[in-house]
Structures are given as C-alpha cells and as structure tokens.
Amino acid sequence: MKKQQLIENNTSKKIHKNNKNDQLIIEFLDKNPFKKSKKKKISSRGECNNGTTALILEFLESYHIPTYFIKKQGVKKTIVKPYEPIPIKIIIRNIATGNLCKKYGIPDDKILEYPILEYYLKNEKLNNPLVNEYHIYALNYANPEEMKTIARISSKINAILKSFFKRRELKLADIKLEFGRISGKIAVCTEITLETCSLCDIHSNQRYDLETLENDPDSASQIYKTIMEKINIKN
After folding, report:
1. b or e along 110-149 (b: 16 or more beta carbons within 10 Å of the residue's beta carbon)?
2. Phi/psi of residue 77, each to 5°?
3. Averaged over 9-37, what is the pLDDT?
4. Residue 47: how many CB atoms within 10 A of its CB?
5. Rounded alpha-carbon distances, angstroms, from residue 11 to 32, 165, 187, 195, 211
6. For residues 103 and 99, what is the distance between their CA atoms, to the nearest angstrom?
7. I want to staple 188 with a disulfide (CB 3.0 to 4.6 A). Which of 1, 52, 67, 163 is the partner?
C-alpha cells in the first residue's frame, strides 16, 4: 500500500491518507518523547503501541463496538477508516490515582465503587480543560444523542477491558478514549496503548502507564516488552 498524504506527525505516530483506497495508515514510532532520557529511540515502543491498539480494537469489534479499525499491517502499522474527529477526550477512572487524589483527598490506589467518567476538551493551547456535557452542546462539538451514545459505549468498553486485563493478571486503573463520526455514526477513533491507559499488576501492584515511562525512561523499552508478553502480542 503506497503512502500518500501526511496528515499528522507527532512523537508517537504518523498518519498518512491513502486517497486511492480512502483509508488512513497509522505508523507508530519508536521516537523517545521523554526529556529525562538521552536516547533518541525506544525499541519496542512502536511495536507495542501498534500491537495493543490492533489487538484491543479488534477485540472490541467482536463485542459489536464500532471502531475505525480495519486491519493491522506489519509490526508498526495499522489501517483505519477516515473519520470526523470529535475534539473531546473521555477518561474513565476505576482506581483513584494522581490528580484525582490531590483534588478530592481520595486515598491513592482506592478502588472506586462506581467508575468516574470525565470529559476534557482536546486543546493543548488551553491545557485540555475539564468540561461537562453542556459545554460540549453549547460549543457544538456533539449533540445530546451523540453524547448518550459516547457515554454508553465508553462504559461498555470499560467493563469489557477490565475483564480482558484481569484475565491477564492486570488491573485497569484508567483509560483515555476518543471518538469520531464515520458516515455520520459514532465510533471509537483512538489508539489504545500504555500511553492512553494505566495498568497495575494484580499481585505486585506494579504500575504500567505514561507516568511510569516518564519517571524511568531508560527502562521504557523493557516495560513495553513486558506488556507485550502479558497481553500476548505476536507479530
């Protein structure tokens, strides 16, 4: 498949549009985004991020959850459908960590009886502010029916993936999702990686997430490899 138009290029991935097939090619990169490390690349980063994204999106499709996933192509590439992005990040929290504990005085690692679903405006210049449904309606990012669908699908994904990771002796502390429109219908349009979710080992409580990677970037390659082994990613 010939790459054509480059439409996104950041530290984690490149996205190309193939005009002939009307598909997007996501190429996950080994670039090192962590300032504490002098290494230019992190081996296994692109392979792990591509592998987890393809495996989990295909798994969600088996539960009739609409996503932009088409197929995995090699070690670091995935083919997805073109979509109209909705500029909202959804974070679902199952275990209290980080800022949630600081803001609300919740003990660290407290398992939440009811998952917390939060919406953030996807805008780096505004530091991705927390918003509610009424902000989203007023700013015309999505309508009430679409937000009901997004909330329902997000909760379903959380339940499915909690079980998915538990079978692999991991706890899903939180996950970040993004949605878009494909032919006018809501679909999951995001990668699912260690950089968009937080996992804990059931036995040791070892954390695997973006914060862990940032705090110990020189061990990042091994952390990615560990997750590939635990989830059984094969290329």
Report:
1. eeeeebeeebbbeeeeeeeeebeeeebeeeebbeeebbeb
2. -125, 145
3. 89
4. 19
5. 7, 27, 24, 12, 16
6. 6
7. 67
Region 115-131 average pLDDT: 96
Contact 79, 23 (CB under 8 A): yes
- The torsion angle over the Cα atoms of residues 181, 187, 191 and 196, rounded to 10 degrees, is 100
Residues 39-77: tens digit of each pLDDT: 889 989 999 999 999 999 999 999 999 999 999 999 999
Q: By C-alpha distance, which of 103, 118, 105 is closest to 175?
A: 118
* Domains of the chain and CATH, by start: 5-80 (3.30.200.20), 84-217 (3.30.470.20)
Report, in angstroms and rounded to the nearest whole number, the Rg of the chain calculated over CA atoms.
18
Handedness of CA 33, 38, 41, 46 (dihedral sign): negative
Q: How far apart are the first and last CA of the chain?
A: 19
Residue 204: partners with Cβ closer than 8 Å, 6 or more residues away: none
pTM: 0.93
All residues at 6 or more sequence positions from 125 whose CB lies less than 8 Å from its CB, including other chains: none
Give the whole-angstrom CA distance, residue 214 versus residue 234: 26
